[in-house]
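HUMAN: Forgive my ignorance: could you write out one protein's sequence and backbone structure tokens?

ASSISTANT:
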Amino acid sequence: MTDTYARTASTWRNWAGNVTARPARVESPASVDELADVLRRASEDGLTVKPAGTGHSFTAAAATDGVLVRPDLLTGIRDIDRGTMTVTVEAGTPLKRLNAALAREGLSLTNMGDIMEQTVAGATSTGTHGTGRDSASVSAQIRALELLTADGSVLRCSADERPDVFAAARIGLGALGVVTAVTFAVEPVFLLTAREEPMTFDRVTTDFDELVTENEHFEFYWFPHTGNCNTKRNNRSAGPAAPPGRVRGWVEDELLSNGIFQVACTVGRAVPRTIPALAKISSRALSARTYTDIPYKVFTSPRRVRFVEMEYALPREAAVEALRELKAMVDRSPLRIGFPVEVRTAPADDIALSTASGRDSAYIAVHLYRGTPYQSYFTAVERIMTGYDGRPHWGKIHTRDAAYLAGAYPRFGEFTAVRDRLDPGRLFANDYLRRVLGD
């Protein structure tokens, strides 16, 4: 055992650039044993420890002035079990590598979010989700977890082994230990047909329940300062595969959604009065299209325009009323919003700190281009969302604290009890966890 995996401390920044930290040191262990030694030495030095994946959280969940653990060397698939239809993967593996590896094996996750840059541990620890009528978040597909706890021991948990820890650790916020491996349920790879279609705000909100009920995966984007939305319906298909044509796919996903949108965002940030006109153009730029492909190529899209984001989960029955209130707020305010509002859904699950814990949920996400002042907009949105018993996404900007969250989550005390047992000395604490969980 040597210190060759330690790196000189430097400034760490998240993907959006809104969170920075200066850890005392940065470590890149190549095995669980090396990671255990990192924890031991940090404890001896009186330093806290936080793992940081790709930095796609907009909160300071991974920030630390102690030891920052990079999981770059803790990657790869440990095992594929076709009897139980599970895959066990090292925690630092990026979702994009997992998806590609599963596809080569003729397998797939059931549902996923709309990007795949995150590590599996980072995505699951913060509750990353896509949209689904019946299938829930990435964390809800976990069948077992392996954690390295504060005392340096390896803890394995599942529905049958330490179920109390499993109920908490599937969305553990990095508070219970360092996730070292995740076992996911998988299924034979299948095809999804995506139907993307422009639709008016009034029609989407009027037909929202029907659109959710009739489709396995439904989501839409509303463009502020317009009455226009872009909808997406994904449903399983018998095939054949018919992916987007190379030219049209590049035009829609790269030129319009990233290249030209980047220019529009830059212009809007410099000259805010142009945003309503740009929004009208953007909302009409994407035309209807239908294509069929394997799941991760349908669920996920490239996101090259950097932004900051707030997202709240509401009881699904409150979504339309909250969204109409949000639109009315934007329409009567001097705010100029150049990014669309994203709306998705998820069924109830049984994870203690899942935003969908115990209730069918709808997600309303608001964004602003990186570098744009966001406080006024996000504060106004948060006021609306908390009025509907909203639960903030753990990895996205919010101002809620433990007092609010203890009331929003019936199983909050169950989670903090597991934390007290596994990390009584708060080796894995930071300012964010002190705010949202208490100390």
Notes: Residues 21 and 63 are 6 Å apart (CA to CA). The first strand starts at residue 6 and ends at 7. The radius of gyration is 21 Å.
